[in-house]
Amino acid sequence: MGGNSSSQQVAQSETPTFFTQEELSKLKSDFETGGVEKVQPLIQNKIKELDKTELNIAVTGETGAGKSTLINAMRGLRSTDEGAAEVGTTETTMEPTGYPHPNLPNVRYWDLPGTGSPQFTAGSYLRKMQFKKYDFFIIVAATRFKENDAKLAKEIKRLGKKFYFVRSKIDADLYAVRKERKTFDENEELEKIRSDCVSTLGKVGIPDPIVFLISSFKQDQYDFVQLIEALEGDLPNIKKRIFVLALPNLSVEIVQKKSELLKKGIWALATISGLVGAIPVPGVSLACDIGILIGAIIQFRKCLGLDDASLQRLANRTGKSMEELKAAAKSPLLGEITPDVIMRIGWGVAVVTVSALELALDIVPVIGSIFGAGSSFLMTFKILRDALKDLTESAERVVRVAFET
């Protein structure tokens, strides 16, 4: 696979920040030279940029390798859900088919036509598939990887992009072995399959490949989580952020990762709230930008899988009922978000104070200091921080109930 393991480990240990270090330096210098007015458009442009960021993931391999099932699994869907990639169909087209994420449509998985034809040439295939469009490639095989898979990997590497070998349907392999033998060592069997894949790829010119053994139906087992971590680790920060937010909630750890990323954007939203001429909330003396609050809370819910559509998909996948999952969530923020709901969740004191430590997520400290203790900035910051904490705890409870962990 492209990229060495030490650089992957470094990348995986870094949490993506809302702004790059260079952008933070520019914010600080612009504030020092031009004040708040100069900072506001930079922050607004950054939020727009994040909203427009696209991630395109190509999934290729022979027909029947399990590409569609993997695409559905990565989007938290079953084959019967609306928007799911069709599984078990014969490929009749040479056109890539794009499948947007149900909540974050800027994340798209592309099912590329099979590579099994004897006339296959990697260069012409990638040109037809619009190679430049994709951020990385997942090469899927259900049995052995073939020469065409290796040719494709070499060409992808030559053109400067990442690729990942995925050996699918591992659960079916183990089931077949279990039917054949009364006793066997599952780990030993997995290592045999892995060694066979590595050996086959080695013979056709891919030295020391990393192969992920997965079942798209048992995402908490085998190498599914390791695959996700590898994909995430190799992406640049802004793409890494959207990739993580688009992951299905397979574990409490994924929920916590999403929460950390969302937390890093709160100060930017609060800064805009502090600058745009906030509207007082009825019954509350402090002003707050209600539109920013409502929009952010709805986005938190979607990213954390707590909107009704996401909960229904999770219920379908895990065999739980919507009632069970909603009972586990028990958050006042799951219904319609109105100014009254925001009032109820918000505050026990008339003047909000937020410590420097709470602000130091990835914020230039001077940004926080431009607003007073009773400002819209601090009110928005506190409400969004508390709302995110509440929704994160709800999402963690939902995951525990859904997967009975």
Notes on the structure:
Mean pLDDT is 78; it is low at 1-14, 277-286, 347-351 and 360-366. This protein has 18 helices and eight strands. The chain has a six-stranded mixed β-sheet with strand order 2-3-1-4-5-6, sandwiched between helices. Strands 7-8 form a two-stranded antiparallel sheet. Strand 2 (97-100) and strand 3 (107-111) form a beta hairpin. It has two domains: 16-51 and 250-403, no CATH class; 54-245, Rossmann fold, CATH 3.40.50. Helix content is 53%, strand content 9%. With 405 residues, the chain is α/β, with parallel strands linked by helices.
What secondary-structure arrangement, pairings included, does this model have?
Elements: H1 5-13, H2 21-52, E1 55-61, H3 67-74, E2 97-100, E3 107-111, H4 122-128, E4 136-141, H5 147-158, E5 162-167, H6 170-180, H7 186-203, E6 211-213, H8 224-233, H9 237-245, H10 252-263, H11 266-275, E7 279-280, E8 287-288, H12 290-303, H13 308-318, H14 322-329, H15 339-346, H16 356-359, H17 365-369, H18 376-403
Parallel strand pairs: 1-3, 1-4, 4-5, 5-6
Antiparallel strand pairs: 2-3, 7-8
Short characterization:
It is built from 18 helices and eight strands. It is an alpha/beta fold.
Number of DSSP helices?
A: 18
Strand content: 5-15%
- What is the residue-averaged pLDDT? 78
The side-by-side strand order for the widest beta sheet comes to: 2-3-1-4-5-6
Q: How many domains? A: 2
Which blocks of ≥5 consecutive residues have pLDDT under 50?
A: 1-14, 277-286, 347-351, 360-366
Rg from Cα: 24 Å
Topology, number of strands: 8
Structural class: alpha/beta
How far is the first residue's CA from the last residue's CA?
33 Å
The CATH homologous superfamily of the largest domain corresponds to: P-loop containing nucleotide triphosphate hydrolases
CATH class of the largest domain: Alpha Beta
Q: What is the share of helical residues?
A: 40-55%
